[in-house]
UniProtKB/TrEMBL annotation:
Protein name: 2-Oxobutyrate oxidase, putative
Source taxonomy: Bacteria, Pseudomonadati, Pseudomonadota, Gammaproteobacteria, Enterobacterales
Domain Non-haem dioxygenase N-terminal: 6-76
Bilayer-crossing regions: none
Alphabetical list of InterPro entries matching this protein: DIOX_N (IPR026992), IPNS-like_sf (IPR027443)
Pfam family, one: DIOX_N
């Protein structure tokens, strides 16, 4: 894998005892070292995926002050950091 491609992780590998550890290692690498990945065979309905994407676009279109109102710093578990 090079720096211009995102890894594609198959969640079905997690259910396979023979492949689970390798999947988790790949997931750890993708999350920690790359920061992004595609997850396939996750079972999330296409309509829900579309709605989440639509709502995220609405959120990121807000001005910075509006986005800061829901920043994690305002959440008690995160404000202690």
């Amino acid at each position: 894998m090079n720096a211009t491609t995102l890894p594609i992780l198959d969640l079905a590998r997690y259910a396979d005892p023979a492949d689970k550890a390798a999947f988790l290692a790949d997931l750890r690498h993708a999350a920690r070292d790359i920061g992004f990945f595609y997850l396939i065979n996750h079972g999330v309905d296409d309509a829900l995926q579309y709605e989440v994407q639509r709502q995220s676009q609405r959120f990121f279109a807000l001005d910075e002050a509006q986005k800061q109102q829901v920043a994690m710093i305002h959440s008690p578990p995160f404000s202690r950091l």
